């Protein structure tokens, strides 16, 4: 059917968003109030980035492991992987965050102390207390566990999308299972995996705001503190939304550029 191709279509939405972002930046710079709000809220950017990057990296590693378990030849491993994915995906991230922070962390501390009691009695280790496990790391672990289930399904679908004939050809060449995965399967699967994996990364940036319920000083928490003290709710949460939009839209554009680059390399 007729109509311009996607390559020929000018990204008016991006141009509009860029102009609005520039106008907002100039307005923030010209207003003492908004500049003060921005300076306060921006202190949480580092924590937001840290939580997002660390949680996503660990979730990707765990997710890949769960995906490989789900594709293994062992029925037990497949059942364990499916159990993990279905149970974790069935729990809301916020509920998982509370559970890890206030139930999982104390249980971990109790188990650790029980396992290391001989070393503690001998004076080699001190007793671990619940307060020694920071709320920041409890939040990171909750996001890691929550997103690993979703990411595992992304990896599983990408790996299964690779043509069976290429895997059989690699077997015929005498490549081991590890070599087949590293040299044949994964390089092709990554092109299928990257778009949904990028979507999960952007979603994690937004869901990282949930760590504020534990008092972790991210962007949202810094905004809550400033708004509670100044009663400038409109200004504060407008700045919070602005910063998150800059982060998420910027990441989305970077990921799209990476996808196009990979696609061009594959076509060449």
CATH superfamily: MetI-like
> Helix- and strand-based class?
mainly alpha
Number of discrete helical segments: 11
Q: Kindly state the mean pLDDT as a whole number? A: 89
What is the CATH class name? Mainly Alpha
- Helix and strand run: HHHHHHHHHHH
Note the quaternary state here: single chain
Write the CATH architecture name.
Orthogonal Bundle
Membrane topology: Multi-pass membrane protein
Pfam family, one: BPD_transp_1
InterPro entries: AA_ABC_transptr_permease_3TM (IPR010065), ArtM/GltK/GlnP/TcyL/YhdX-like (IPR043429), MetI-like (IPR000515), MetI-like_sf (IPR035906)
Transmembrane segments: 45-71, 91-115, 135-159, 239-258
Structural description of this entry:
The protein has one domain: MetI-like fold, CATH 1.10.3720. The chain starts with 11 loop residues before the first helix and ends with a helix. It has 268 residues and is mostly helical.
List descriptors:
268 residues, mainly alpha, MetI-like fold, 11 helices, 79% helix, 0% strand, flat
Write the layout of secondary structure elements.
Elements (H helix, E strand, L loop, with lengths): L11 H19 L1 H10 L3 H26 L4 H15 L3 H23 L1 H5 L13 H26 L3 H9 L4 H31 L11 H12 L2 H35 L1
Briefly say what this structure is.
This protein has helices at residues 12-30, 32-41, 45-70, 75-89, 93-115, 117-121, 135-160, 164-172, 177-207, 219-230, 233-267. The chain has 268 residues and is mainly alpha-helical. It is found in: Cell inner membrane; Cell membrane.
